[in-house]
Amino acid sequence: MGGNSVDIYVVLGYLFIAFLLMAGVLILFFYFSRKKIIQKEIEKKILEINHQKELLRSVILTQEAERKRIAQDLHDDISSKLNVVSLNTHLLKTPNLSDDEILEITDNITGLTQKALESSRRIAHDLLPPVLEKFGLNAGIEELIVEVTSSKTVKVNYLNELKFQFEDTERHLHIFRVLQELLNNSIRHGKATEVSIRFSKINDIETCTYSDNGKGFDTSNNESQKGLGMKNIESRISFLNGTFSIFSKVNEGVKVIFTF
Ligand SMILES: Nc1ncnc2c1ncn2[C@@H]1O[C@H](COP(=O)(O)OP(=O)(O)O)[C@@H](O)[C@H]1O
Ligand SMILES: [Mg+2]
Q1: Does residue 215 line the site of ligand 1, with CB under 6 A?
Q2: Which of 256, 219, 213, 212 is nearest to 237 (CA)?
Q3: For ligand 1, is residue 222 a contact (CB within 6 Å)?
Q4: Which of 90, 125, 160 represents a domain boundary (last residue)?
Q5: What is the pLDDT of residues 144-157, one digit of tens each?
């Protein structure tokens, strides 16, 4: 009888130890898997932050490049001409000028002033197309297309099923710049002869579908060497809380879908 009860205690003791071991294993398992999950999440956050940093860097770099370009334009196209105008005006003060000389000098002055005016209009237009502010995004895109197709050998099919709200100028400027960059890339890199731009609602989200028939490129190995242009597009779309996807293969053109 006594031996039996000792057996029960031994069995209970073993059961208890087994239970403790199991609980320990379970606790350890949960602890480590939780740690792993947290670590994964931290890694994801770090990647996100690095991506944001990269975007910010590209915004700053582009801004600097733009400033450099504007400074160069101002210097080459305006300051240099105004300098000559100023020289000519001083020349007019020279005593005993003949009528012919005066005519030549004033012709010079009017010609150069005219050119400086045209340049300043062009520079201002490049910075912010006036039609965009005056007549909205649709008109701005139409003008952009006319400009692109008049000077280059590319045809653009444009279809807009959306109604852009007039007050949304800031958002529209981003969309305009994105299309400007996409068109530039299609012409410069893709040597495309046909581009199609379409605005429509897909699943009730305002979407732009863009495609060209150019050379295309390998998107898989391009991820790490995206240029400033693409990064800028990404940061503009992220300002708009939209999504951006690009699909391309060598010799199969480029297709871009973005929402905003
Ligand atoms: N429409 C396109 N057709 C062919 N290649 C393209 C196109 N768009 C982009 N690319 C490729 O992607 C690269 C990155 O483009 P981008 O970021 O605009 O930089 P960038 O224009 O300054 O080179 C380009 O150098 C080009 O190789
Ligand atoms: Mg580019």
Answers
A1: yes
A2: 256
A3: yes
A4: 125
A5: 999 999 877 899 99
